[in-house]
Design goal:
Blueprint lengths: L1 E6 L3 H11 L4 E7 L12 E4 L4 H11 L2 E6 L6 H14 L2 E5 L12 E4 L2 H8 L5 E4 L16 E6 L12 E5 L6 H9 L5 E5 L8 H8 L4 E4 L8 E3 L2 H11 L1
Parallel strand pairs: 1-2, 1-4, 2-3, 4-5, 5-12, 6-11, 7-8, 7-10, 8-9, 10-11
Helix pairs in contact: 2-3, 5-6
Length: about 250
Amino acid sequence: MKKILILGGTAEAVYLAGALKEQTDLSVIYSLAGRTRSPNLPDCDLRRGGFGGATGLVRYLQQNEIVAVMDATHPYAAQMAENARLATTETSLAHYKFLRPAWPEPDDGLWIHASSSKEAAERIHDNFKRVFLSGGLNDVADFSNLTDVWFLIRSIEEPEAPIPLGNFSHIKARGPFNEADERALLRDPKIDALVSKNSGGSATIAKLHAAKSLSIPVIMIDRPPIVGGVVFDDPLALLEQLRRDI
């Protein structure tokens, strides 16, 4: 039976794994980096933890006789995407990349672009005082020098370590979110800027609609460059192509 490795961590990855598992001639292995403690999981073989870089991934692919790799990680999982590119190039394996469409910038929206969370912090400095960090806990340390700013932080899990900010409030919540609740979340604590990654999808887009309705600027951390793989933004098209190829 042919084995396919899915690098997961997104809702689309779970869907793709479930759809492929229905094929009796395929064995699906779903891999998670392990950052989220209570992730949504497909009903297939699971693997947790890192591979040890591109070299470790090459070893895993060879030892487990993988015939294709599907990278359906988060759009900002740049290192994993690069490791997948390097490993599939070295092993000459088929490499498919699912990338959900980015949110389009509205013509009359107030987007301030940044290439990283550190650059987003620079955009905040001396410009905003009450900021909603909507992208989870991974990069909050990049805002730690902004001691005169109050932050609202939202993540899907409780922090495992103290949050390295001096003045903040944390809420635990998992999307999807609706616009009315997001508008209240921005309005009631008098948020004057929203920091977001352009993750795409429907689960968290309501915060952008809410910010636009309240004329609150959005500091948008742009996506990293796409590296490697045959890129799809439609899960059904990816499934159709993979079934033709394998």
